[in-house]
Design a protein that fits this description.
about 575 residues; Rossmann fold; 4 domains; four-stranded parallel sheet; 22 helices; flat; binds arginine
Amino acid sequence: MSATDSLVPVQEALATKLQAAVADLVEVPPTPPVDRSKAGFASDFQTPLALQLKKQLGGNPRQIASTIVDKLGGDDMIAGLDIGGPGFIGVTLSDAYLQTHLAGMLASDRLGVPVLDDSTVVIDFSAPNVAKRMHIGHIRSTIIGDALRRLGTFLGQTIIADNHIGDWGTQFGRVIWAWKNWRDEEAFAADPIGELERLYVTFVRKEKEDASYTDRAKAELVKLQSGDAENNALWQMMIDTSRVAFESIYERLDIHFDVTHGESFYNDMLQPLVDELLADGTAQISEGAAVIFFKDEHGDDTLPPFLIRKSDGAALYATSDLATVRYRETEWSPTRCIYVTDTRQQNHFRQVFEVARRMGVDTRLDHVWFGMMTLPEGAFSTRDGNAPPLHEFLDEAEKRARDQQVKRLESLGETWPEEELDQLARIIGLGGVKYSDLSNNPQTNITFSFDKMLSLEGNTAVYLQYTSARTHSLSKKAASEGIAPPDGTTLKLALPQERDLMLQMLDFGKATRAAWEQGKPNLLATYLYELASKYHTFYQSCPVKTEADATLQMSRLNLNLLARKVLAQGLDLLGIDAPERM
Ligand code: ARG
């Protein structure tokens, strides 16, 4: 097999065999679900196929199961078959199949995971607003979106990561006025985006006390919108300043975009689009504004009305999202667009997607929404009750990771070079922040905790990183004992713990596909956590150094190597590095 060859996933191979086995029993064989058997069962996989066929064939499902089992016998993939409960068929894989499949994974650059089609998928994520610092509220979209970008790319799809930054809107009237009247040049030189944010926050505070400020902001905004050169230059400066600040966060977190088309990119497309939607009856004039209604057959609203042009003629966030859908269709002809934002925009995207359908767009549109991430009281010294800026939060994560490792190394009596410690702190700290997010179902609220993030026992990045480091130390130790390095092909099964680890590794492709399909990186995280637990059990029960059987010894080194490759690849898909030693 060549390095990039893919392997037929085990469930798929079994489903095909099962379908063939019932081909002359029913005209259209159903696609049988094949799942890993629960712990305690003798078989590796189970299928309810016989139960599925009960309606069509009549009779007792156990009888049907037994007919299927007879037909399946004598297959070199299958070592054993059994029938359980009301008629579940249990399948035990042959050692030969496991050996060939796992050696195939070892020989492949992509661990044998098949690619999907290479059609284009747009991922719209991160998208912070200009003239404000990124804070912890922006982290989830950034981290989840990036994991999806990595997953889609790994699975062979053509990804366009588009950072739809908020670079247009009424806030610019405020910041421009405040800039002209209150700016502190020195502060701006020291911390450009911090100063822009201060100006904005100060203005909003003033505006609350004195309504006349609203008119000042409006006047600046009107000038900006009507092409005033000074205001346009200031606006551009604010975008550039913000993007430099965003970039430094992205670089630190190893996050990448293919394009950054902010909201303003669509400005010229907005009015013609509204006119078009009015002309074709999609939108209506209501109290001077252009609105789209969503009504069922009784005339009741299925969604709140969607305002796309205010009565004063101004377009909105909604309008630019419609123009964005249209632009992406024309420019890239994607088969899927994924939007990653928090839960509060669920209705917004329902409305956008529904209007997109009316505009003739049949691309799959997914809103991957996520819950809030909060910090527990006292976890961070938040200033003025504001969310801490993201870079300070990341600094803190690295610092805590470093402290933990220094303490651990001290207790082991080890001293490491400072640079390696810094490197380790970065990998554990930033990996920990990402994993704290990605290991949860996006659609839950999470309370972030540094202590939890750094726990060496739970489902954490540092635990997975530690597991990966252990695979390195095992092979290093073996080498120092004069044991030959893993040959990538020899595999032998002796103990159930080996088989368990092997079966888990077979499932890597399935986990990555599920995470990508469902927009849930936590499905991959959970898989990796289970893999790590099975690896530790294997490590404890299946010795290498003292194993007298040379074939078995070699097999264990190969399993160790494959576990490392799967862990490293899986972590990389989550945007997390794995250190060689810890
Ligand atoms: N800038 C927006 C916000 O901060 C997020 C944009 C999401 N993407 C989109 N196409 N609307 O809420």
